[in-house]
Amino acid sequence: MQIVMTAGTRYSFVVSVLVSLAAACGSATAQDFPPDVTRGKAVYERHCLTCHGRGGWGDGPDAAAFTVPPANFHRFKSFLKSDEELLRTIEHGIVFSPMHSWQGQLTETERQDVLAYIRLLVQQGR
Ligand code: HEC
Could you tell me which residue ranges the Cytochrome c domain spans (predicted)? Predict the structure, then answer.
């Protein structure tokens, strides 16, 4: 059998390749646009600052009250972790620690925005 590529079949082949490419890109990242650090800052200041501190050093006003100290995002231990790993922690929390799950309180986009803001804080230093 011989496959004859008419203009019509070629066109539908190109369209199906484009559609599957778009689908692959869409599933690689949860959001189609880069995280918004301005929104991330607002989320951080509202929900995270009391424990993790304004600069992310783990020295927020509530930090002293906990036996498990809030993570200092500037330590190698934290900033070498992948985005996926930190997002998982924000999503699910850490057992036996004051770091509870934020699933339900923050949307997936807000969790990504706040992580982008944490990454920015770490770049800034003291
Ligand atoms: C009540 C205090 C508290 C609040 C509020 C809080 N955290 Fe935490 N967080 C902690 C503690 C404590 C740990 C460290 C737990 C441990 O080391 O076992 C932690 C750990 C983390 C980690 C993991 C760091 C690592 O190195 O693995 C991330 C990421 C994080 N917090 C993000 C956030 C974000 C984002 C918010 C705000 C939406 C937030 N936290 C709010 C107490 C808090």
Answer: 35-122
What are the φ and ψ backbone dihedral angles of 106, each rounded to 5 degrees? -120, 140
Of 37, 49, 51, 84, best ligand 1 pocket probe by most atoms within 8 Å of the beta carbon: 51
Find the CATH number of the domain harbouring 87: 1.10.760.10
CA of 79 to the centre of ligand 1 (A): 13
Ligand 1 center–CA 108 separation, angstroms: 16
- pLDDT, one tens digit per residue, over 92-122 is 999 999 999 999 999 999 999 999 999 999 9
Torsion of CA 60, 61, 62, 64, to 10 degrees: 90
In a domain? residue 71: yes
- Alpha carbons within 13 A on the beta-carbon side of 115: 23
Q: Based on the structure, what is the number of domains in the chain?
A: 1
Q: Give the residue numbers spanning the domain of 41.
A: 37-124
